[in-house]
Amino acid sequence: MTPAAHISAAIEVIADISARRRPATDALKDWGLSHRFAGSKDRAAIASLVYDTLRRKASSAWLMGNEEPRSLVLGMLKLQKNLDVAAIDDHFSGARFAPEPLSAEERENLAKDGLKGAPLHVAGDFPEWIEASLVRIFGDEVEAEMQALTHRAPLDLRVNTLKANRDDVNAALAHLALEPTSHSPVGLRAIPAENRRGPAVQSEPEYIKGEIEIQDEGSQLAALLSAVHAGEQVVDLCAGGGGKTLALAAQMNNGGQIYASDSDQRRLAPIHARLERAGVRNVQVRTPRGGADAVTDLDGKIDCVLVDAPCTGTGTWRRNPDAKWRLRPGSLSVRVNDQAVVLDRAAQLVKPEGRIVYITCSVLPEENDESVAAFLERSPEFKSVPAGEVLERALLSRLEPVFRKTEHGLQMSPLKTGTDGFYVSVLERRAKK
Ligand SMILES: C[S@@+](CC[C@H](N)C(=O)[O-])C[C@H]1O[C@@H](n2cnc3c(N)ncnc32)[C@H](O)[C@@H]1O
Where do the SAM-dependent MTase RsmB/NOP-type domain residues begin and end (predicted)? Predict the structure, then answer.
C-alpha cells in the first residue's frame, strides 16, 4: 500500500470510530479483517495515523472548521506530522486508493497559522469539562503539559534485578538501540519509530527468561517510591496482572513477604505465570473467592499497603488517545468512589507507623490529592509524608527537581518526568499513643 492509501484507510477507520462510537482497537481490527491484503507494516502505519488523529482531534477539528473524519486526518497531518500544504497535496491526489484532491476551503484552512487564538482545551487537545481540574494541577502550564500528553509514548522496559543488571541487558539487546531511562535506575527505553510498530520485545530471549518486563518508567518510579525493602510485610491490594508486584519483589530482593490481591479474580490470573518467569519467590497470591476479601487475616499487621488504585487513566492518554474523548464526569465520580473504598480497606491492614502508598495513573486532582485529602479527613490516624521525605526514603532525592509536588504527593507527567502521568502519595499511620 502507498502512504496515500494508508491515509485513505485511516479516514475510513476514523469514520467507523465516530459513527459507531467504538474503541479504536476494535475498528482497526475490523478494518484488518476486511482488508486481508494489507500486511503488518501497512496495518501498523494505518494504526499510527489513526492514533495520531485521535491525539489531535480537538485541534484538528478547530483548524479545519468541522469534525468530519477527512478533516480530522488533514488537521493531524499538519499539526502532528508538520506537513505543509504541498506535501499534503501530494497524498491527496485523487489517484486510485488515494484520497480525493483538496478543496479550496481545505487548502485555506491548512494554510492558516496553526492554533493561533485557539481556546485552551483545543490547544491542549483535551475535553473542555476537565479544564478547571487541569488548571488546579498544572496552573499556567496546562497547554504545555497537555500537548506533551498528545505525543507518542516510548516503550519502556524494567530490568528484573533478581535475574540481570541493566548494562548486561542493554548490551544483549544492542540491536534494539535502547537507552537507559533518565530517572529509573532499572529502566531501558526504546524511542518510538515513526509509523512503525515498536520492537518485538516479547520474542527476545531476555524477555522469555524473565530478565525484562514491559513497564513505563513512571510505573517503575511509583514502585520505587514505596521504598519497600527486604524484611517488610507488604500487601499489593490492587495487584491486577502484577506489574507493580514484580517490581516490588525485585526491590525486596525476594526477601520479606508480599501478599498480592485484587477484588477481581480474573485480573489476577496472569500474575502466576509472570511471577514464575521473573523468578519471584516472596509473593503469596491471595485470590478472592466468591467476592470474599482474601486478606482479612492480615489486618493491622502490614508495613506497606500498595494501592495502585482504579482510576480514569488520564495519565496514559499517550497510549490510549481515544480514551480521552470517551471520559465522562460520571466515570470520574465512579472512580473517586472506588478509591475511597480501597483506601479505607488499606487503612485496616496497616500497622502503627506503617504506610499506604497510593498510586494512580491520572493527572486529575479529584482522584489524586483530593481523594487523599478526603481519606485523611475520614482517617485522622494517618498523615501524608512530605514529598522530600518520600524521595529521601526511596534514595531518590536527586529527583526532587523533576517531580511536580502537590499538597499530598508527587505528580509525574510526560512534560516533567518524560513518563506517563503517575501520581504517588505516601500515607503513614501515626504511632500508637
Ligand atoms: C490500576 S489497576 C492495577 C494494575 C496493577 N497493579 C499493575 O501494576 O499491573 C487497578 C486494579 O484495582 C482493582 N480494584 C478495584 N477496586 C478494588 C478494591 N476495592 N479492592 C481491591 N482491588 C480493587 C481492579 O480490579 C484493578 O485490577
Answer: 145-430
